[in-house]
Amino acid sequence: MTTPAKTSDVTAPAAAAYEPVPVLAPFGWLLTLSAALLVVFSTWFIYGHDADGMWAGYRGGMVATAVVLATFALRTRMSPTPAIGVIGLGGALLILFALVYDDTTSIFVTELGGGVLILLGALLVAAGRRES
Predict the structure, then answer these.
(1) What is the pTM (predicted TM-score) of this model?
(2) Predicted confidence band at 61 (pLDDT cuts at 50, 70, 90)?
(3) Please, which domain of life does this record's source organism belong to (predicted)?
């Protein structure tokens, strides 16, 4: 004689809610800091010394410096939300500078590439951030 089938007392774990991945925030922080420093160094060494390079260096250097300071602010006890906003705004500004202004190829590539990497880093920091 066989025993009737019983339902198991073991239940499958519920699908985990979307949680931050712990490796994304540090990688985003490193990507943001690296891209912003590369933009700062590019304004010093790659941009031309004519009028176009000078003004592009001013605007790119100021935006990248603000992004570097906001990236450092992520490592403090302050709320990370304003710093992530400043980083994202800086990346978007660099992308808009690259697309709107008619500059040389080196300035275009630096601003577009730096803006995309900074914006990607801000998204990774925001996606991996654990609020306590």
Answers:
(1) 0.81
(2) very high
(3) Bacteria
Q: Which tens digit of pLDDT belongs to each residue from 100-116?
A: 988 889 899 999 999 99
- Rounded to an integer, the average pLDDT of 91-100 is 95
Of 95, 92, 108, 115, the closest CA to residue 56 belongs to: 108
The whole-angstrom separation of Cα 77 and Cα 89 is 21
* 71, 87 Cβ separation under 8 angstroms: yes
Q: Which two tokens stand for residue 56?
A: 């592009």
Burial class of residue 98 (count of CB atoms within 10 Å of its CB; 0-12, 13-18, 19+): buried
The CA distance from 115 to 38, in Å, is 11
Residue 24 has a pLDDT of 84
> Which has the closest alpha carbon to 121: 60, 77, 70, 61?
70
